[in-house]
């Protein structure tokens, strides 16, 4: 990826340009010390003067009122705030009419910024004050007052906090009084510019120490650049938070959100004092010290999938390279390309007006449909369909271009969603709520309605990243997520009424990804790269989980690596310096998943015998128990030396009825409640009581016996024997109450138990006879 820059031969402004701002994706306003406000039309390449400011007004900062005001989306911005050196800020309409001028600060007003809703304005000045104003320019509050000039200000993602500079310090101050203020030393020199992105919630800062830095919203340093030759005079996030641009003397740099640099341009601009990204994030403009306005387009973005490599070579042209046969295709578009995604055999491209869907089998005939809203900010793909996210909502389309659904939830803000906070699979869509970060909304992809009982999934702490598995049945769909403490959890998305079981499977996890063809999860936790070959093991046999892992030292990936892809058995990881590392894992677990999903148990056993790997046997054991195939489970457990479990499986086989066997398989997986419910539903009351006795759930065993008026003496007898073995006396009042005047006769109890077992055998035989007769009739 790089920047394609353009400068006019002669500057349109006679003095330095102090600020620039986009109204639409093709129209820009610039302000200069020559008191002119100019309008640049990029479609016609025309530049016109909008207005000449009074001679004593030197503009410093410009910010257009956000396009979505009060939930209504406007096609373009209508007015902007302009701060100036005379201590005023001016509210100016698009035509250049000054609607209002407000005396704001003593000395120059160094920066002015609208919040994301356009309901409040923050200004900072040479007098060291930070002030909050209403949309109409009425003073709401003076947020801070200090002895040094404040050079830059930015709103927090939720518009509840304000970030501003104070010498070498950065300060985050909430609007609410009596809430803790966060302050830290960020640079060794004066901080000149700062920016805070609402999508990734990361902070940028640039200073006179010639460095730019990336911080998280808690003030932790994520990246610090090498010192440049000159102070960094401007820095700005692109709208989607994937890129940022850095400006300095004769320098323009394009960087990834993690800090490393994609491209460095050395244009003849003097210092670049201000950078503004266009609405669609495809281009940026810079305000230059020598009177120029520099324009730069982001080109040469690349997408890779299997044997295809696609490059955006011009704004409206893509090149497709098939590395197997070296074939090259050119894809031409009517409008400029804004977003693209390549996965599952399809390329989805959104331009400013249309969406194109290409199949990798045929590049000549794309499917084209018009877009509803405008700028697409995110494209996510699954095997059967894809998701488009824009400012208006979430839209799920099939690869034939049919709109499948458009899920909604209360307080939905789609402009701040990214690939970490939305996840898509063939049947499910998961979205992390930004208003309450502990909540994940889960939708049925086909209907767009909330899944299960309609309640969202709620965690105990804030969630950072979510990912749905891609394969298997809808009823077994799992979601993995990383929380604020960097713990990795997994849970099922299908829940009806009962409390979901969220299980922790990893700690200090930086990044995660599911495999595209089988439910294998990989992640980087602390200093180890880990692959969970069968994460579902936690629901089947928790003790086995550690045996189903593959671990590798991750020190070669350096600090803060990110997993880019997990396709087939190849994992692509991007290091903090931007370099890509490709890792290959064993292909056998993927084959094992395929065999199990097709119920080819004999082939699965044969594969494990061929590979002779304990991890494979452990995965097969868990898969067999999950699918209730106890014969295979017995072989697999025997191969990893779990003799106690082999004996238990053998004892399950000897049980007389199918219901008992099912209940004990549930018990094997630790699902005590489900096992008991199954036995009670099928009328096996004694067996349900016996299960609780075996697990020493004495109170529950007695409760069932009393409720069903059977085997109270059995429970009391086992309880008495248990206490005698440990030399204890009965202290439980309920047991003392029922034991009064009761003589324990073990012969009687044994006879009753044998009778229950005989009854169960008869029932099993009768139901087998009925099944056989039905089969004969059919």
TrEMBL record:
GO terms for biological process: cilium assembly. SMART domains: WD40. PROSITE patterns: WD_REPEATS_2 (PS50082), WD_REPEATS_REGION (PS50294). InterPro entries: Beta-prop_IFT80_2nd, TPR_IFT80_172_dom, WD40/YVTN_repeat-like_dom_sf, WD40_repeat_dom_sf, WD40_rpt. It is found in: Cytoplasm, Cytoskeleton, Cilium axoneme; Cytoplasm, Cytoskeleton, Cilium basal body. It comes from the Eukaryota. GO terms for cellular component: axoneme; centrosome; intraciliary transport particle B. Signal peptide: none annotated. WD repeats lie at residues 102-134, 184-216. Its main location: cytoplasm. Residues 300-588 form the IFT80 second beta-propeller domain. The keyword Cytoplasm applies. Keywords: Cell projection, Cilium, Cytoplasm, Cytoskeleton, Repeat, WD repeat. Residues 616-762 form the IFT80/172/WDR35 TPR domain. The keyword Cytoplasm applies. It holds the Pfam family Beta-prop_IFT80_2nd. Component of the intraflagellar transport (IFT) complex B, which is essential for the development and maintenance of motile and sensory cilia. Component of the IFT complex B, at least composed of IFT20, IFT22, IFT25, IFT27, IFT46, IFT52, TRAF3IP1/IFT54, IFT57, IFT74, IFT80, IFT81, and IFT88. Interacts with IFT88. Interacts with IFT57 and IFT70B. PANTHER family: INTRAFLAGELLAR TRANSPORT PROTEIN 80 HOMOLOG, OUTER SEGMENT 5. This is Intraflagellar transport protein 80 homolog. It comes from Anser cygnoides (Swan goose).
